[in-house]
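stage 2 :: seqdesign
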C-alpha cells in the first residue's frame, strides 16, 4: 500500500487524477469502512459509493462532517481531501437526530459543568483555558508583528481601545493570510477558533459579552460563519453559503416567531373567550377592555401562532386599533415587567450617547451629517430634520446597515431602510393618502405633526391600518413598534434585521444565544458594551 500522507499536495493531486484510486475512511453511525474512489470522482458518485458500502437506501439524504463536526459539501470536498488525506469523514442521515461521533464519546473533566467539578478540577480547567488563550494571543500577535500594517493595528487599539471597520478588515486579512500559510487553504475548525480566541485575548474590548465564547463574530464554529470564515471563502475563491437550515446543530429559532409558554393567570377558554370577545366589540370602558384583553391573551397567542389565523387577529380583536396601551400589556404578559421596561430605562443612560458617539465615525454623507445634528440637538430647533431620539434610532440603522439577502437580491441602502422604520406625516393631510402610497407589509412608525422635528402623535402602520401609540415620545413609540413584532409574531423586515436583532438581544436581552446574529451585530455590541 502506498503511503500518500507525506506527499506534497501537487504530487497527491497527480496521484488522485492520473495514477491510482483513492482510499478514504468513512464512519456511518458506529461503523467505519474504507471507500475506494476513482480518479476525478464527483460528489454524487462519492455519495453513491457511501450508500452502497453501508447499505443505505438510495432515497436517504446524507451530510458529511470532518473531525471537528463541520459540514463538508460538494464545493470544498476535493480541496479538503487534498489538505487532509487521512481524515475520517462522518456520514449522517440529514434530518435525523444528531449522533455523537466516536471521538467525542469519552467524557472528561473539561466538559463537565462547573457545578459538577471539584475546586481542583475547576482550577485545572481554568488554567488550561488561560494557557490556550495565551497561546492563541501569541499566534495573533506574531502574525501582526511580522506583517506590514500589523503594528498600526495594535497601535490604533492602544490609542482608541477599539478598531474601525477598515482596520478590522485589515486585521482579518492579515490573520487569514497567516492561517492559510501555516495550515493550508482549508484549515480545520480548531485552527480557525484559535485565531478568533487570539483576537479577543489580544484585543479584549472586541470580545462580545453576550456570546458563548466572545469571538463568534470572528469565527462561529457552530454555523461556520464570521469574518475569518468569510475571508477564507474569498481566498478559496468559493461561494459556499451556509444557511441555518444546513447547520448540523439545527437552526437558531429565537425571535418574534418563537412560541412561548404562557404564565398569565385567569385565562378564559371556550365559551368564556367568546363572551369576552363579544363584550370587547361594544364596550367603551377602558378598564373593562384591558381586563378582557388580559383574560383572552392565551387565545390570542394561539391565534398569532396559527398560520391560517394570523391575519384574523385584528378582525377578532379590533380594540388594538382604538385603545392605547394594549401592545404594551400583551408584551408584558409575555415577558414580564422587567423585560418590558428595559429600553425606556436604558435608552438615555446607556445607549443613546454611545450610538451618537459611534455614528461620528461613519462616512459623513449628507444624511448622516443631518442626523447627527438632529441627534445632538436636545432643544429641537426648526433646522433639525427629526427630533433627537428618532435621529439616534436612524443613526443606529446606519451603524447596522442592511445585508444583501441572496446573490441576486438588490442591495438596500441605509437611507432606504430608514424609510421602512419611520415616516413623517403632516397632521393636516389624509391618513388614507399616506397609507395608500406604501405597498409595504412590515409595520413601521407614522410620526404625525406640523413639523418633522415636532411630532404630536405616533401610530404603528400595519396592513394599511393604524394602531395608536400610548407613548407621546419617539423612543416610547419605537418601544411599542418593537413589541408589536412579538405580540403579533411578525418577522423583522429584512432591511432592518440587523437593527431589530441588536435591539432584541442587546437592549431587551431576549433569546440571547437562540437568535441568529450577524458578525456586524456582535461586533457593534462589543464596541458599545466594553
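stage 2 :: out
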Amino acid at each position: 500500500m502506498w503511503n500518500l500522507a507525506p506527499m506534497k499536495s501537487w504530487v497527491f493531486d497527480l496521484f488522485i487524477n492520473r495514477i491510482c484510486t483513492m482510499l478514504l475512511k468513512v464512519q456511518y453511525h458506529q461503523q467505519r469502512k474504507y471507500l475506494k474512489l476513482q480518479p476525478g470522482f464527483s460528489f454524487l458518485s462519492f455519495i453513491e459509493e457511501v450508500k452502497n458500502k453501508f447499505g443505505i437506501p438510495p432515497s436517504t439524504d446524507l451530510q458529511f462532517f470532518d473531525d471537528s463536526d463541520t459540514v463538508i459539501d460538494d464545493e470544498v470536498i476535493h480541496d479538503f481531501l487534498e489538505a487532509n488525506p487521512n481524515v475520517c469523514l462522518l456520514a449522517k442521515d440529514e434530518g435525523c437526530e444528531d449522533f455523537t461521533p466516536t471521538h467525542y464519546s469519552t467524557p472528561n473533566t473539561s466538559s463537565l459543568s462547573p457545578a459538577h467539578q471539584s475546586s481542583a478540577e475547576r482550577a485545572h480547567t481554568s488554567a488550561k483555558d488561560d494557557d490556550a488563550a495565551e497561546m492563541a494571543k501569541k499566534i495573533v500577535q506574531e502574525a501582526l508583528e511580522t506583517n506590514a500594517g500589523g503594528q498600526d493595528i495594535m497601535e490604533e487599539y492602544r490609542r482608541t481601545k477599539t478598531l474601525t471597520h477598515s482596520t478590522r478588515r485589515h486585521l482579518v486579512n492579515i490573520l487569514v493570510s497567516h492561517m492559510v500559510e501555516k495550515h493550508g487553504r482549508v484549515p480545520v475548525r480548531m485552527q480557525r477558533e484559535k485565531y478568533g480566541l487570539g483576537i479577543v485575548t489580544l484585543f479584549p474590548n472586541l470580545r462580545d459579552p453576550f456570546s458563548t465564547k466572545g469571538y463568534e463574530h470572528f469565527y462561529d464554529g457552530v454555523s461556520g460563519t464570521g469574518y475569518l470564515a468569510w475571508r477564507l471563502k474569498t481566498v478559496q475563491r468559493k461561494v459556499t453559503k451556509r444557511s441555518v437550515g444546513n447547520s448540523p446543530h439545527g437552526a437558531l429559532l429565537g425571535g418574534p416567531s418563537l412560541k412561548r409558554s404562557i404564565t398569565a393567570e385567569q385565562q378564559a377558554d371556550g365559551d368564556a373567550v367568546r363572551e369576552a370577545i363579544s363584550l370587547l366589540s361594544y364596550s367603551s370602558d377602558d378598564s373593562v377592555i384591558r381586563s378582557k384583553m388580559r383574560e383572552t391573551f392565551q387565545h390570542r397567542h394561539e391565534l398569532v401562532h396559527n398560520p391560517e389565523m394570523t391575519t384574523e387577529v385584528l378582525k377578532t380583536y379590533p380594540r388594538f386599533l382604538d385603545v392605547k396601551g394594549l401592545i404594551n400589556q400583551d408584551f408584558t404578559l409575555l415577558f414580564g415587567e422587567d423585560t418590558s421596561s428595559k429600553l425606556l430605562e436604558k435608552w438615555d443612560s446607556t445607549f443613546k450617547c454611545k450610538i451618537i458617539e459611534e455614528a461620528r465615525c461613519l462616512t459623513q454623507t449628507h444624511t448622516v451629517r443631518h442626523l447627527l445634528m438632529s441627534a445632538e440637538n436636545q432643544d429641537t430647533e426648526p433646522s433639525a430634520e427629526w427630533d433627537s431620539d428618532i435621529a439616534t434610532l436612524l443613526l443606529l440603522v446606519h451603524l447596522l446597515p442592511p445585508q444583501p439577502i441572496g446573490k441576486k437580491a438588490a442591495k438596500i441602502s441605509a437611507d432606504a431602510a430608514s424609510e421602512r422604520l419611520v415616516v413623517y406625516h403632516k397632521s393636516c393631510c389624509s391618513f388614507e393618502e399616506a397609507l395608500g402610497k406604501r405597498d409595504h407589509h412590515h409595520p413601521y412608525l407614522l410620526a404625525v405633526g406640523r413639523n418633522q422635528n415636532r411630532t404630536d402623535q405616533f401610530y404603528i402602520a400595519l396592513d394599511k391600518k393604524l394602531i395608536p401609540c400610548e407613548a407621546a415620545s419617539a423612543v416610547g413609540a419605537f418601544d411599542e413598534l418593537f413589541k408589536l413584532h412579538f405580540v403579533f409574531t411578525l418577522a423583522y423586515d429584512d432591511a432592518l434585521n440587523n437593527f431589530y436583532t441588536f435591539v432584541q438581544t442587546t437592549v431587551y436581552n431576549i433569546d440571547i444565544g437562540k437568535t441568529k446574529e450577524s458578525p456586524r451585530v456582535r461586533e457593534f455590541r462589543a464596541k458599545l458594551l466594553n
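stage 3 :: structure notes
- The chain has a mean pLDDT of 81.
- The chain has four domains: 9-104, 129-246, 271-331, 337-529.
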